[in-house]
Amino acid sequence: MSSSANTPFVTKTVPSAVDRTDRAVVIHLALSLFVFAVYGVQVCPLLESLTLTELLLPVLTVLVFIFLTHNRLAPSFDLRSDSEAIQTGQYWRMTFGLFVAAAVMLTLFNWWAYSAPLESGLKVILGLMTLGFFVATDLALQYEKKQASILNIEQRRLKPAKSFMPLTRKFSLFAFANTLFIAGILFLVINKDLHWLTDTSTNLSLQEAQRIILLEVGFVVAVMLAYTLKVISSFSHNLSYFFQNENDTLQRVAEGDLTVRASVASHDEFGHMAHNTNLMIDDLERFTHEVKQTRDVAILGLSSLAEARDNETGAHILRTQYYVKALTEHLKQLPKFKDYLDDQTIELLHKSAPLHDIGKVGIPDAILLKPGKLTDEEFEIMKQHPTIGAQALSIAEDQLGSNSFLRFAREISETHHEKWDGSGYPKGLAGEAIPLSGRLMALADVYDALISKRVYKPAFSHEKAKEILLEGKGSHFDPDVVDAFVACEQEFIHIAKTYSDKSE
What we know:
This protein is mostly helical. Helix content is 70%, strand content 0%.
């Protein structure tokens, strides 16, 4: 079964990954310019001695290099029709590598232009690497979610990888690297401040020096904390996205929709969960189809058995079945019935209708096949067929457990001769105490009997049958069901013509 047929997403025009991440890249690089400038002044005496232009221009240049190179390389990571994986790891390595390259270029420039010492170069490299780590991680997480969204929109599913890095390991590696980078940056800041305090040329009071140091440390901690929280937020959004996809799929399956499939859009635990969910739904759909086929075969066999012992034809069974469906399709549009008559209930009523006279198998042939009018005693025996049918279906319920199909079949068999005013049989139920299934079958059965030829009467016209049904509104038949019949009487005429008895 193809994913395009089973994935509940609408096809749209999908922009490339570059178009969707340009804004995030620009924001991250702009923040990097500001953060690195402040960081450089705090940890490196050489950078502190430069003018604002001398400090910012080289940094801006390498960040522009990162942006342009990123835009050139990022399209190669876009999903193609032959893609087998979302290349999140490769995308992260590309972005982080650009920051490392920019750090090396900036270090070489400072060495060439200002004879910067090795210590200064290492501080520049560590600073840009730290920024690159956070920026690359956040952009990679956004890339992963957006590419997963593209897969959903394009109704494509990945083939789960046999081996992958677990989410727990990814998070542990992030926490470990995050701790190292933060510790390294704090070490450089504190080390520079300790040298500054021991500098005898510093003419600041101890309180002023303490205030400056706290501001510097506070700034670094705030920046590192903000980046950490941003990455955690992006990671949480991704987790929520994949959990929501899985939950939405399972919810729709729980509601009976077996056409839905989960989106396999990642090579991790979520991808395997979605894949296994789809395998489960495939098996459930196949099993459900087999159960429905078995049910339909049972209905066909039982209704054929009843037909074989009755004067009525198989066409009568088909006609009444479709009459019931026509009535339910109209009634479901009314507020009173719309919650009850969902698609599944309508299907079950349609499938169960052929069993309405299954109890006739328990009626003696002398009565069931009598060509003339029945005596009062014979009619009393004939009136037992609803109860006989209901009892047989109740035994099935006791043995196999109750389900919607058996319940509807039993209701229809037992109550299709009940009347709205309580004068029917076998229990003399009245009004809405009669199940809707029985009220529907009552009209369908009587209408078909009226328009059909019998040994004891000729076939009536549709108009004559309609007149009799209208006379029975509120006494024999549910008024709502009669109104539904009037609204869809052309469908009744079409059904009667389509499934007419061959002998007529």
